[in-house]
Each structure stands twice: as C-alpha cells, then as structure tokens.
Amino acid sequence: MINSIPRKYLFSKGVDQYFTEVYLAYKFVVRFFKEASRPPFHLREIINQCFEIGVKSLPLITLTGFIIGIVFTQQSRPSLSEFGATSWLPSLVSIAIVRALGALVTALICAGKVGSSIGAELGSMKVTEQIEAMEVSAINPFKYLVVTRVIATTITIPVLGLCCGFVALLGSYLNVHSFESTSIVSFFNNGFSTITFIDIFSSLFKSLAYGFTIGIVGCYKGYHAVKGTRGVGRAANQAVVLAMFLIFIEEVVIVQMANWIRYY
Amino acid sequence: MEEQKHITNEEPVISIKGLYKSFDELEILKDISLEVFRGENMVVLGRSGAGKSVLIKILVGLITPDKGIVKVFGQQVNKLSPKDLNTLRLRMGFSFQSSALYDSMNVRQNLEFPLTMNVKNLSRQEINNKVEEVLHAVGLIEKINEMPSDLSGGQRKRIGIARTLILNPEIMLYDEPTSGLDPTTSQEINTLINEVQKKYNTTSIIITHDLTCAKKTGDRIAMLSNGKFVKIGNFEEVFNPDKYQEDDKQIKSFFNYNFIQ
Ligand SMILES: Nc1ncnc2c1ncn2[C@@H]1O[C@H](COP(=O)(O)OP(=O)(O)OP(=O)(O)O)[C@@H](O)[C@H]1O
Ligand SMILES: [Mg+2]
Description:
The complex is a heterodimer.
Chain A: H1 13-36, H2 43-82, H3 89-127, H4 130-136, H5 141-180, H6 184-193, H7 197-223, H8 229-263
Helix pairs in contact in A: 2-3, 2-5, 3-5, 3-6, 3-7, 3-8, 5-7, 7-8
Chain B: E1 14-23, E2 26-36, E3 41-46, H1 52-59, E4 67-72, E5 75-76, H2 82-90, E6 92-95, H3 107-118, H4 124-138, H5 153-165, E7 171-175, H6 183-200, E8 203-208, H7 211-217, E9 220-225, E10 228-233, H8 235-238, H9 249-260
Parallel strand pairs in B: 3-8, 3-9, 6-7, 7-8
Antiparallel strand pairs in B: 1-2, 1-4, 4-5, 9-10
Helix pairs in contact in B: 3-5, 4-5, 5-6, 6-7
The complex binds adenosine-5'-triphosphate and magnesium ion (MG).
C-alpha cells in the first residue's frame, strides 16, 4: 500500500529509485493481468470508458487523419511525378498509412489526450483519498478503475486507429481525385493491391500494444501519484512522456518483427 | 456521556495492543494500546501530525502496522485475506478527513455506489429508499442531485457520513468530522454523530482536535501525544485542571488553546 523508498541506498538514491520504479511498474502490470482474469468484470464501466475515450477522441483523430491523408499525398506527388509515376500515389500512400501512420498517429494523439486525462483523473482520485474510500467500502479500486480503463484503451485505440487510417485514405483519395481524377474504385484497388495480410495484422497488433501501453501507463502514474496538486500535474505529464517513449520503442520492435515475418 | 458504558468483562469491539508505525525513519506511533467497547464513542485527541489519521487507517487495513496487534471484532486486521478484510470493512464505516466524495458522481450516485457494488440484486425501489433514508438521517435530502463540487465543506462531510451509513456499519470511524467548520455547523455534526450512534447503534472512534466535539460526542477520550496515548478516560478525568501535573504540558496547552479561543 505505502511504498517507501529504502533509506540505505544500494547504489545511489537515483539508481535505487529507478529500480524501485521499474519493480513497482512490473508488479502493477502483473497485478493487472491477475485482476483482469477474475470476476467481477465491471462490463458497464468498461463500456462507459470505451465510450468516453472513443467518442471524445474521434473528432480529433478523424480530423488529423484527414489532413495527414491530404498533405502526405500532396507532398509526395512532386517526387513521384519526376519519374512520371503519379499513378503509384495510391499504393504509396496506402502502404504508409496502413503500415505506419494510422496506428502511430492515433497512438501519439491518444497518449496526449487519453493518457494525460487518465493520469490526472486517477491522480486526483488518489490524492483526495477517493481511491482509499473505495477500498474501505470493500470495492477493489484496482479492478474498478485500472482494469476497466486499460481494457477500454486496448479496445478503443485500435478502433480509432482504423478510423484514422480510413479517413486518411479518404483524404488522400480526394486529393488524387482532384488532380488525377481517379475513381474511388480504382484508387482503392490500386492502393490495396500492395497491402498484405501481414501489414494489416501487424498494424492491428501494434494498435493493441499502444492502447494497452497508454492505459496502463496513465493508470500507473495516476495510481502512484504523490500527495498534493503538483502530484496530479506530474502524474498527467509523466503519463504522456512515458507512454510516447514506450510507443516509439514498440513501433521499432514490432516493425522489425513484421519485417522478419514478411521476408522469412 | 453520562456514565461509563462499558462492562469490563465484555470483549472489546476494537482492541489495539503495542502498535508501532513509522514512515522511513519518522516514528509516528509508538506502543499504542486501546480498547473500545460496544456502543461506545471513543474520542482520540491530538495535535495535527500526531498520527491520528494513520491510527484509524491502520484499523481499516489501509496502512499496515510495523508491529503490534490490531483486532476488530476479534479478527486481526493485518492477517486477514483480502476477502475477509472486505467482509470486515463492510461492517465498518470510515468518514474521511477530506470527505473523499467521488467527484465524478453526483450525491445520489455517491451513495448508491457502495451499495450496488456490495449488495447484489437490489431493486431500484430498495436502492432509492436506502439512499433517501440516509440522506434524511444527515438532513440533506434536497441535495440529492447535486455534484460534490457544489456542496459546502460541512455538507460534504455529512454526505460522506451518509455514504458510510448506507452499508449499516457497526463501527463508525470519523476522521476530524468538524475540522474546518464554523461552530454552528460543528455543533450540527456533533449532534449528527450522537444521533447516528443512537439510531444505528454504532461503536465509534472520533478523531478530532476540537474540544467541544470531544466533550459533546465522547464517552471516553484518549489523548495522543508524541506517538503515545498520554491519558485515557472520560472528559472530566482527562481535562480536570486540578489534576494537572507539570509534565502534562501537552494537555494544558490543548486545554488553554481551546478554551481561550
Ligand atoms: N503515507 C504516508 N507516507 C509517509 N508519511 C506519512 C504518510 N501518512 C502520514 N504520514 C506522516 O505521518 C504523520 C502523521 O500523519 P497523520 O495524517 O496521521 O496526522 P494527523 O494526526 O491526522 O494530523 P491532522 O490533524 O493534520 O490530520 C505526518 O507527519 C505525516 O507526514
Ligand atoms: Mg488527519
């Protein structure tokens, strides 16, 4: 319950704190899987959270996706037209969006928007003793607050990523249509001809990983917020920074894995 | 208040023996022992930072003690499995110093939440009845649809008390029920505490540094100072100026402070 940093340092204060933090985070993740696998499941709260996270982020995600689609297509055109290869635009853009941009952009936006709000919400519940209030009324706050939110982000962020990708392709199509007057059918035919099952699968897998990361990091930082309003601010801030950092690492690792599967 | 209520051969509802707790190297509680009997209002007095909140958080298992035996209804709190601990917690109500209302929920939802999460298969009607009953008990039925942020400090305290009453606790733990309130509102809370004890027949521990509250609500008073109980007894015993000894400075200053004000 109370996690005190040891007094006599093994190495130095900073190093010890770092390892304590890693250990606490590890225990937090293990606890998540333990608690998530046992009833009660608070389905209604999970649905609430999905709604909260999904619906509130949807406008921003679709707008960003749309703009990325248009701008990316627009900016890629000159290089391709040098070789007279503007007909490759749909497949180029599709590959970029499906393999990387859709999932990644969604994850980064959600790390900022959803991660910080989870961190701040749980952080303020922690410092105003609301989490303890749940505990003393025999409600498991970890289950009710953490498990539901992490499951919600893990479900919602892939869906948002899908929306983002779809709208980006739509934006790209509009741009291609207005310059090269391609029909929508041939745009998507052309675009998807180069997309493989592995591309879609790895993107989906990435999105799931990002969603989980955003949820668990936000909850971890909020749940371990230290007393005071500064603690809440720090929790929100660190939730975003750490989630983004982990997302980039996951991106690199999963891309390597996908390439390995693709070529062997 | 009038007479000592406990019968000495009765099992205490709460018993603490040789309790120690420190945070890092800061010793907060040193060798605390206390027994509270059924139906009794026990007041714990002490300065800010004396460790009063730590003490009652240990009673509900929010903080684990370093050493000592803490028994509630004969069960040792820090040795219970999570499931048994929850069963025990349902028999105890904990009113937080900060009220700790869920600020994303309105008053009604705040009250329903512990009920619906712990008692399955209640009908809508039963839930509403229970919510209205406890709101009537604390006299705030008209605030049923407001958000906690729209309530005053005293109202929040009372809703906090109502939220613990909804599970029919046998023990009530009040953490500074009157702190930060004006004398009239404090008086209302004191009356409420006594009414709750009568109506729900609870055993209570009331943490406070407000002497009026101690006098009005306490059957017995325990003075916490430097991590120890320096005196336990009824109000007259603890605050009899004739009985002051030189080393009772703590009590003296407490007494002066409260009554000169
Ligand atoms: N979780 C914790 N971690 C570290 N120190 C703590 C913790 N909780 C309490 N303390 C320390 O224990 C001491 C007693 O705190 P406590 O909240 O019990 O005081 P209190 O008697 O309730 O005071 P107040 O009247 O101001 O509420 C304080 O010095 C506080 O810093
Ligand atoms: Mg306190």
